[in-house]
Amino acid sequence: MVRKSPLKSNLSISAFFPCYNDAGSIALVVQDAYKILKGISKDFEIIVVDDGSGDESREILERLKNKIQQLKLVFHKKNKGYGGALRSGFKTASKEYIFYTDGDGQYDPSEISKLVERLENDVEVVQGYKIKRSDQWYRLIIGRLYHYSTKIMFGLRIKDVDCDFRLIKKKAIDSIDLENNSGVICVELVKKLQDKGFKFVEVGVHHYPRLHGHSQFFNYRRILKTMIELVILWFNLVLFKKK
User: Fold this and answer.
1) In this structure, is the dihedral angle defined by the CA atoms of residues 19, 108, 212 and 65, taken in order, positive or negative?
2) How many domains does the chain have?
3) What global pTM score does this model have?
4) According to a count of CB atoms within 10 Å of the terminal CB, is the N or C end of the chain lower?
5) Residue 3 in domain
6) pLDDT (tens digit per residue) in 93-152
7) Is residue 186, in this structure, part of any structural domain at all?
8) What are the C-alpha distances in Å from 186 to residues 42, 160, 162?
């Protein structure tokens, strides 16, 4: 008989999902997360951070709250950006480990178990990487350019900084200050955790086509804004080594 390690058998975990106009997917994401977490932990919570959605996301979440007692809802009155949603999720999470992924359904919450399997006492971050990215050709090209640019600029040692499927020890999150309100926060997060010396392990996860809504990132104005924010972040974290 294979015995579970105490770390995994007593898992305490918060799972949160940023949501922005994800009415078409957020209910299924939460329900799938509930099913898998109920099977692997007796001490868990699910958090959805609605970042000022203008669709029916909030009404759907309120109905879900009546069915899932472990569900916590955070509503932003105005859109704060992806980074703002993540910061709210990290602040709200109360368990020993924090998992997060997007609420648009492009990742399968049931694969949380793949991350949990890699937990050991000396591991602070279990980082997902996309086995194969399921996006249009131009997004694949931009994604590759973004990956290699940030990897070189910031000295990142992971396979896929753009894979928002992460399980992180809360103590590690609490030891860093996250400041960005945009998607650049993912680079900031990984860089600061890496510079603190926390141990990463990586796991391949599946990536699926977006079935509802559309990405907020892929337009020229946002791409230019991201490039500027990356340069500013590089000055702060690499040139001036701001902690």
Assistant:
1) negative
2) 1
3) 0.91
4) N
5) no
6) 999 999 999 999 999 999 999 999 999 989 999 999 999 876 665 667 777 788 889 999
7) yes
8) 29, 10, 7
Is 3's pLDDT higher than 50? no
The better pLDDT of the pair 22, 136 is held by 22
Range of the domain at 16: 11-239
Tell me whether residue 6 is in a domain.
no
CA distances from residue 136 to 31, 131, 141 in whole angstroms, order as listed:
28, 16, 9
Strand order in the sheet with 97-101: 71-75, 43-50, 12-19, 97-101, 165-169, 125-130, 200-205
Beta pairing partners, 50: 19, 75
Cβ contact 65:92 at 8 Å = no
Alpha-carbon distance values, 187 to 38, 70, 147 (Å): 31, 30, 10
Assigned domain for 2 exists: no
| Both structure tokens of 4 | 């579970």
Rounded to 5°, the CA angle 153-89-39 comes to 110
- Return mean pLDDT, the chain: 90
